[in-house]
Amino acid sequence: MSLALAYTSIVTIKDIAVTPQLCEKVEDCLGLVGAKCVDGVCTCNQSRVCEKVVGKIATQIGESCINDDNCNIDQAACNNKTCTCKPGYIKSSDERSCLLVSARIGDSCEESVQCYTKIPFSGCQENKCVCQQHTHDFNGLCYRDVDYHRLDQ
What we know:
The chain is mainly beta.
C-alpha cells in the first residue's frame, strides 16, 4: 500500500472505523500494540492494521495512562504514564480537576492551593486570593506583619 493510499483508507479496529495514525517518531504510535513509525504511518506486523490499546480513561490526577487521550481531565496530560496537570495548573483537592495557579492577590480562585502555590501566606476566600491573617498585601504578594512595638524594646 502506498503512503498516499494510507492517508485516505479506513482501518476497522474492533468494529470502530478509524483512519491510520500518522507519525513522525515511534512515540507518536503509543497506544497501538507493537507499533512502529514507518514512512509517516504507524505500522504493526508489516500492516497498517494495528490493535489499539484501549486502557482505562483516567478521571483523577495521578492515575495511569498511555497517552494524553487517556487523561479525561481539562488541562491534564500523560507524563511518565501518569496523568498530571499541565504547567501553570495544579491539582484540585479531590484530584479530579486541574486549577489555574494564581499569580497575585486578587486573582480568582476556587481553592487555596491555587493561591499559596505562588503567593506564600495567601489563601482563597470568596473566590479571590487574599493574604492570611497577620499578613498584608504589598504589590500583589503577602508579607508577614511586623510588631513595631516589640522592636523598640
